[in-house]
Amino acid sequence: MFTQDDLYNPFGMDEDCRNCPALAACRERVVHGYGDAGGEVLVIGEMPSAGAEANGVPFTGDEAGRRLQRVLGDLGLSRSAPDDPEPELQNVYLTYLTRCRHPERPPTDDEVANCEPFLNGETRMINPELIVPVGQRALEALAIEYTTRAPDSFDAEAEHATTVRGRGFELLPMVDLADLTESRADEFVEHVTENVFSRDYRQTKGRQGR
Ligand code: SF4
Predict the structure, then answer these.
(1) Which of 21, 116, 205, 209 has the maximum number of C-beta atoms within 10 A of its C-beta?
(2) Is residue 109 assigned to a domain?
């Protein structure tokens, strides 16, 4: 059984990956996933922000990261202050569709496809129950993988703080962090607390009791 030594990149993924030449040429570093490798909740964004890239930990290092970390704290998934550069997370894992950042543009579809084996590997090893796609791009990418709905039928704004049933996972869409106002963050926390954590959301996937 896998035992975790470190919250950062617990699966020892390649930190010198060059499968996207344009990204490898301008990134400061690869930002692989971070958190509880046995977590029931998996949070997936599009790409590292400048703050996350500088800090080396997903969803940290800037205001956007603080917004997400505050939500995790409110849900009991973090024991740290929202601005902690290395938050102490439990039952949640944070990662991206692409783990290298271009300072001037979002990743291309090819770059997302290049990076998919890393995301797939993390998802298989973590085997989460709940997936939180952050922003429209992550929502559409996960919709292709895990639902039968057409990706363009999803709207992160409209589906924020709702539950979308998928194949093997429930998706809990969240708006892009730039749009996560305090009231939208509260809506998300309230939805998850009252409609998800309050019931048995675990699917029959052979997970051992925590
Ligand atoms: S985005 Fe992913 S696949 Fe592309 S270079 Fe970075 S780690 Fe490798």
Answers:
(1) 116
(2) yes
Residue 71's domain spans which residues? 31-196
Question: pLDDT tens digits for 105-161?
Answer: 999 999 999 999 999 999 999 999 999 999 999 999 998 888 888 888 999 999 999
Tell me the per-residue pLDDT of 170-201, one tens digit each, with 9 for 90 and over.
Answer: 999 999 999 999 999 999 999 999 999 998 88
Say how many domains are in the chain.
Answer: 1
**Residue ranges around ligand 1 (CB below 6 Å):** 17-20, 23-24, 30, 98-100, 111, 114-115, 118
Cα 106 to middle of ligand 1, angstroms: 13
Say if 192 falls within a structural domain.
yes
pTM of the model: 0.94
Any idea what the CATH number is for the domain that residue 105 is in? 3.40.470.10
185 Cα: distance to centroid of ligand 1 (angstroms): 30
